[in-house]
Protein 1
Amino acid sequence: MAKAAESSGDPGTTPPRPLFAGLSDISISQDIPVEGEITIPMRSHIREFDSSTLNESVQNTIMRDLKAVGKKFMHVLYPRKSNTLLRDWDLWGPLILCVTLALMLQRSSIDSEKDGGPQFAEVFVIVWFGAVTITLNSKLLGGNISFFQSLCVLGYCILPLTVAMLVCRLVLLAEPGPINFMVRFFVVIVMFAWSIVASTAFLADSQPPNRKALAIYPVFLFYFVISWMILTFTPQ
Amino acid sequence: LPKHACVPYSFSVEFEEASDLLAETPDAATTSGSNQLTPQGHVAVAVDSGGSYGAEEEVEESDRTALLQEEKQQPGFWTFGYYQSFFDVDTSQVLDRIRGSLLPRPGHNFVRHHLRNRPDLYGPFWICATLAFVLAVTGNLTLVLAQRRDPSIHYSPQFHKVTVAGVTIYCYVWLVPLALWAFLRWRKGVRERMGPYTFLETVCVYGYSLFVFIPTVVLWLIPVPWLQWLFGGLALALSAASLVFTLWPVVREDTRAVVAVLLSTVVLLHALLAVGCKFYFFQPLPLAHPAPPTQAASLSPDLPPPPTSRAHTT
């Protein structure tokens, strides 16, 4: 430090030495090893990732989310014991399904106020508040699943019932009669059973073993109510 | 010295625990209870000085620490753990409580034998939810079946009945026990032997007593009127008996007038709920004029169906 001060105080004759040049002359205690590599292995990788999601086209973003949703749909349709729905939960799928179901189930505007099927808002409220209530119930019973994971599973498992609603709508275009009703009844029963099996495959492991039935029964009631709304739907 | 520091706390806690225990076990003589309190206070202080006491005091000491452990773990009502304590039941326990409410016996107090003073909220909540949905669904089914027999009846999903059913049943299971609990606490001074039930125990009793209506409502699908009234009467008798047998030990020492009025009010409210549901959800009226949502039996079942031009078949 003294040398640097001396040399900088000498004007004109020699060009000023760069700052901190004298630091290399300071001797550090020899027994502290200060050699080694400092590398951040993920760093360049993260930087690439960040800039790629900022600069990618909108289509890429949408397709990536749609693919994630579609992958989870496949997991619901072929329920195996896997962790995909739980690990990478998202609520896009349940939202799409709930809106589709509510749009198809709502009564037409010419129907009277008191009688008739549910309004859009009523279906929405039943699905979301039902899912929240079941999640709270399973958490209060001591389950170790997180709030949004449970909402995600319950929402995705409405997929079979939405398919049943589509089929019922198509069948209702044909002539009414007992065969019409039997076909719809059969389809709804099968899809109801599929929903229950799918959600049980995902949710059952997170409950304490002697309370599994207590946690699964509200799921049964929830899908039963939705199936009932689908079965009693009459186009006006 | 931690032992000395916690003595006052333990003494007051212990007093409350002992008085609760005395309230719950009416057979325990009060004299021996009060004797238990003072020596334990001395035991807590004197243990450190190494006095040699008998084995009895050591057992009391271990009981006291066990009680302290339980007492200390009571969380505040703003934590999630507080509400978790109301759902601390297993499947077998819930099934046992349902069985107990279905088969009331005169000496068999529901709260003591089945709840064992650990009320849960799972049973009442989900039994009410199930009952509300089953009422709406079977009411709708009745309309479907009625329409098959008489195609002039206009069918519609009647979704608003779900809301009415839900609100009615939940209000019943929360407000009536609240009134009953408040009344019993007000009359507490008359009773020496047994403390009143806590609010949650009363809610539990009412919630589990509604379970018998679930199969009854399903059986009301059978369109034979006298059979429907028979099933309704049976269910009402079972349910009201369960309530009365549970309430009887608590109101037994009260004056006869109060006992008669209380028990008959309880049974009357229960009957009103059953009859109201029967009339509101199971009237296959042709729905040109939908039934008003009142609980009084003001609807006449003989209304002739006006001819409607909007008859639809499903």
Note: Residues 22 and 28 of chain B are 7 Å apart (CA to CA).
Protein 2
Amino acid sequence: MFADFDDLYLRFAYVIGKDWEICAGLDEGTTQIAYKGVDFNPKLVFNFPLECTFKSTSPFGWPQLVLSGYGMDAFGNDVVRGYGTTHIPITPGRHKLRVPLFVPRSSSRFQQFLAWILGRRPEFVDPKVVAHNAGREMTRVRSQGYVNLTFNIVTKDLQSLGFRTESSEGIHPAAHDQQKSYHQLPLGALPENVSQYEDVDRM
Amino acid sequence: MTEVHVIGSILGGSGFPDESLFCKWKIHAGSAWRVLQGDQEGQTQVDSPSHEPTAYWCHPIDLHFATKGLQGWPKIHLQVWHQDSYGRNELYSYGFCHIPVSPGHHELDVVTWRPKGSLAEELKTQFIGGSSQLKNPDLVSSSSELYKLRTISMGKVHLRLHVIVRNFDKYGVEF
């Protein structure tokens, strides 16, 4: 916070409702530690692959991806750089999303100084709390930086169970937009395949 | 039984006079609608951005409605509040938006406003803080009562919503 930082690693986890389960893929993990390049506009590039398959009986509790970023501060301590969360997109296709990150703030200036000196910054006990609605009213945070995510989504059997995730405009796109393809198989529950890549823009 | 899922987040707010903001939100729906799962109201965290002019909340919304009709399609009511460095909260603005009626992914910018008081009240707001508030915040989305108000424009709240509908085809509803 007092100096610009140039290294970061992210931890990711999926938060899903109780009707959901993960059939395949890692449900949490850690990226590599990335350092900024020497460009004029330096970015932190992760190029980190994510693949996951979810299965559910109801769209309630749609999966969310929760990210927590950590890095070294000037004294060599591992401190939290930001938390962020986003819902996995619901429509099949390729989606690019930008997720802003935020850190909890210390209660007072003195606490802020102590945190900087000792390297013990305020953090969430469980990062998954940012994906829930309750209990956030009293949190004070500072937002800094963002992460760029690219999602490729495939869904299965949503239409055969009566769900619509796109309006007619979306299903019959204009002639120049040819990239989407829909894989609809006839049987089974409600699985969804997801593959994602991440990169981080300047923190 | 027709069902509607609203899944998404209140991303943040921008264009306000100061940037230490939080948002109280509530989703209203007509009498034919019933909430099956999810929280209908909540309050985001207080965010003060370090570099950007936008305060980011990323507050998740996940609601599951069952409905018998299209009237009273859900609306989200927003109140943007400001918290100063002493921890005092004051209301900045009101806003509302209909949840989009088409299934799919939507990025929305909800414009907001605050009620304008008399000259004395405006001076008080400038110097002491605090602001005029509506006695009944639900009026924000009623078409018949708003003619009585004078309002001042404030910033925008950014929403990212996904809507999934189910079984409307059986009743002939075309999206």
Note: The helical segments of chain A are 109-118, 168-171.
